[in-house]
TrEMBL record:
Sorted UniProt keywords: ATP-binding, Cytoplasm, DNA damage, DNA recombination, DNA repair, DNA-binding, Helicase, Hydrolase, Nucleotide-binding
Domain of life: Bacteria
Organism: Mycoplasmopsis fermentans (strain M64)
Oxidoreductase keyword on record: no
Keyword ATP-binding: yes
One Pfam family this sequence matches: HHH_5
Protein name: Holliday junction ATP-dependent DNA helicase RuvA
GO BP annotation list: DNA recombination; DNA repair
Gene Ontology molecular function terms on file: DNA binding; DNA helicase activity
Length: 145
């Protein structure tokens, strides 16, 4: 499995783009890609989904975004479209909505109903909160050193 590739954006069309790396073009679905520009060089974290019916490649600016996408996919009843739409509101906003337990706002995201929003909050709120505490502890330790 490829975790990331370095390359540049050669085409954009809505939520999809073509990412060229080592003279190979990858058709990638990329959330919140308004900040991405043509010919921009970047390191893109990738998530590949293959099954009997489809092959899809999702791209993310940061590893944390990819991890959240994978965490969402591991939840019962959540597929790539729903996970993508959660991240499409923006990574920081998605994290804050989940940590705050804001089921109503999450349910406003396309393809998400209140039941799915509740599952997302119940399953990920504690996990995301503990991760942020670990990051705060690490930053404090580094500051002391």
């Amino acid at each position: 499995m490829v975790l990331y590739r370095k390359g540049k954006i050669v085409y954009k069309d809505g939520k999809n783009l073509i990412f060229e790396s080592d003279n190979v073009g990858y058709y990638v679905t990329f959330p919140d890609n308004k900040s991405i520009k043509l010919n921009q060089e970047l390191k893109m974290c990738l998530y590949e989904i293959k099954n009997d019916f489809t092959w899809s490649l999702y791209g993310f600016k940061e590893l944390e975004e990819r991890k959240l996408f994978a965490d969402l996919l591991n939840l019962n009843g959540i597929g790539p479209r729903v996970a993508f739409n959660v991240l499409n509101v923006g990574f920081d906003k998605a994290i804050n909505l989940i940590r705050d337990g804001n089921i109503e706002e999450i349910a406003k995201i396309e393809y998400i109903n209140p039941r799915i929003a509740r599952i997302i909050v119940e399953e990920l709120k504690e996990k995301l909160s503990s991760k942020s505490k670990d990051v705060k502890k690490l930053k404090l330790c580094l500051k002391i050193m």
